[in-house]
Amino acid sequence: MPSLTVSANGVELSYVDSGVPVPSDNGYTTMFALHGVGFTGAIFEKVMSPATSASIRFVAINRRDYPGSTPFTPDDLKSVTSGTNEEKAAFVKARGLELASFIDQFIVRNNIPPVSKEGKHGGFALIGWSYGSFVALSAVANVDALDAPARARWTSHMRALVLHEPPTVAIGSPITPPFWSPMIDTTIPAEFRGPLHSQWVSSYFKHGDLSTRDFRVISWVLPVTSRAPTIFNIPEERLKVIDYAPPAAGSDLLMMLHLNNQMNASYKKACFDQDIRQLLPAMKITAFAGDSANSLTYPAYWAMEDDNKAYGGGMINFKGYIKGINHFVHWDEPAKALELYLDAVL
Prior knowledge:
This protein has helices spanning 45-53, 74-82, 85-110, 133-141, 148-157, 168-171, 190-201, 236-242, 251-258, 260-272, 274-279, 297-310, 329-332, 334-345, and strands at residues 3-5, 12-17, 29-34, 56-61, 124-129, 158-164, 284-290, 317-322.
């Protein structure tokens, strides 16, 4: 698995690249995708074939602490659990700058075309799926900290930020009762929390009328029996590559528990800061969710709607609740996932 060195201290991020797509008279667009908790970037592999046919180059990146990318050090995690507010903010910023550097290097090394004059071709979209959204948001929030050449390349190339079902912990929104997750349920033996999370989070759920924005309509714990969890549909040999539980009870969990304020500040800067918007004039921000996803999705979606309204509206494009899809549409229905991503870019 290839990787790029993204910081002066040797941090590497590994990735899977679909490669240059079918030639098009108008060039091609690149999509960079960040995975969630307990799953590697390989969870996007089924999107890559239809993406190539649609003149999309699809690049799935493994976050820190996932295979092929640099693990966090004990000092890194100490800054998460017991650092000052400034140290915690620096940790979140560093994750964003690592991703921003990765994208900039990828643009240069692969001669990625910039956004076309009419804004319909070229450039790149950044997809944050689930908890991976926090890294995507931090990258956008910290474009202003890049050196001038890298900043200019982001300005000329970025077309879209896609927020694919970020949970509350990815945007620093308060976790409110009756919130539940296998990762924080201490009645479950510690060694089972990560594997159970993978089954639960990839299940299908039947909720009430989500348009009411009422927490009581959410099925917080119990999946439906009419459709199997997505990971039951992943062949065992691929599941060994895709399902990676250790961070779910390790670094990811620590970040979720200790970086709420810093995540919130990063998300708000990325989505609502006017200076960032001026740096990234072609950036379109889109959020969407399936109507059969797990319960971690909807409080965050509603919080983003409220924040967007508070900032005057029009900053985030909300696509609503997509019928019949769960949190893993990119595996179960890859053509549908690509359609949603393309719609967010165009």
